[in-house]
Design goal:
By secondary structure, the protein is mainly alpha-helical. It contains four helices and two strands; from the N terminus they run ααββαα.
Length: about 160
């Protein structure tokens, strides 16, 4: 599975500071062709998520990161979920929701859109409490934390096909 890092404003500044420059179309072509050839040499079908269908001309087919077919195969159950409408327009991922929190990961990946500066992340992580219902911090005195219902995507209808 392959996807280019989105060109978000906060990532541009981070990349610039690290000396990472935007790639040109010919570099994108070479990278996509090379990754596709490597994947195919090992028997994989290279896929791209949320990218323009033009990657197909380089041997990559559109596909989802969060694949209903892969989940169905792993669980040995049919699913009835829809495409996640909260993602990029070309994304084919099945509906899901994130269980993380912004500025809470200490890995420091430059391409991560969910983190700000190292100082901000470090400050937030000081407030992590494994006994808290929140990932970072404690609820305010009278704060009500709504429970988000997660409906099962398991298909209840049996199929003979």
């Amino acid at each position: 599975m392959f996807s280019f890092v989105p060109r978000e404003a906060k990532l541009k500044k981070r990349f610039w500071k690290a000396g990472i420059v935007p790639v040109h179309r010919d570099q994108v072509t070479a990278l996509a062709k090379g990754l596709s050839a490597i994947a195919r040499s090992y028997g994989f079908v290279p896929q791209s998520c949320g990218e323009a269908n033009t990657l197909a001309e380089w041997g990559m087919v559109p596909g989802p990161f969060i694949s209903p077919k892969e989940i169905e195969a792993a669980l040995q159950l049919p699913l009835q979920g829809k495409r996640d409408a909260n993602q990029r327009p070309l994304c084919q991922c099945i509906e899901s929701f994130d269980i993380g929190a912004y500025n809470s990961c200490l890995n420091g990946c430059l391409y991560c859109y969910a983190n700000g500066t190292a100082e901000r992340i470090g400050h937030h992580c000081l407030f992590h409490d494994p006994r808290s219902p929140l990932l970072i911090g404690q609820p305010l005195k009278d704060q009500v934390i709504p429970e988000r219902r997660a409906e099962s995507l398991k298909a209840n209808q049996l199929s003979f096909l």
